[in-house]
């Protein structure tokens, strides 16, 4: 199953677009299989069980800070 970047804003999951400026205080970017998986990662983050890490984006050749499972 392929993974995608998702942004969660105010509890709603949306596809992540590199060119958008996500300045909302409540936005979380995740690297996940599905929207449901993205929400699970956000829940783990809120519980303090995972921390954000740098993710190299092939689309924009930049780096985004995202939530992802360890070892990915």
- Strand residue percentage: 25-35%
Unreliable sequence segments: none
Query: Structural class, judged by helices and strands?
Result: alpha+beta
Q: What is the number of independent domains?
A: 1
Biggest beta-sheet profile: 3 strands, antiparallel
Rg, Cα atoms, Å: 11 Å
Percent of residues in helices comes to 10-25%
Gross morphology: globular
Number of helices: 1
Q: What's the end-to-end separation, in Å?
A: 14 Å
Query: Which whole number gives the mean pLDDT?
Result: 88
Q: Tell how many strands the DSSP assignment holds.
A: 5
Element pattern in H and E: EEEHEE
Query: What does the oligomeric state look like here?
Result: single chain
Summarize the structure.
Helices cover 17% and strands 33% of the residues. It has 72 residues and is of the alpha+beta class. The longest helix is centred in the middle third of the chain and has 12 residues, at 35-46.
How would you characterize this protein structure?
The chain is an alpha+beta fold and 72 residues long. It has one domain (4-66). Helices cover 17% and strands 33% of the residues. The protein contains one helix and five strands; from the N terminus they run βββαββ. It has one helix spanning 35-46; strands at 4-9, 12-15, 27-32, 53-56, 63-66. Strand 4 and strand 5 (63-66) form a beta hairpin. The mean pLDDT is 88.
Write the layout of secondary structure elements.
Elements (H helix, E strand, L loop, with lengths): L3 E6 L2 E4 L11 E6 L2 H12 L6 E4 L6 E4 L6
What key attributes describe this structure?
single chain; 72 residues; alpha+beta; two-stranded antiparallel sheet
């Amino acid at each position: 199953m392929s993974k995608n970047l998702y942004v969660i804003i105010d509890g709603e999951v949306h596809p992540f677009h590199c060119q958008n400026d996500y300045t909302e205080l409540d936005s979380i970017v995740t690297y996940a299989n599905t929207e449901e998986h993205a929400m699970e990662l956000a829940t783990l983050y809120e519980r303090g069980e995972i921390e954000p890490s740098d993710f190299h984006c092939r689309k924009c050749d930049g780096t985004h800070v995202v939530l992802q499972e360890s070892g990915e």
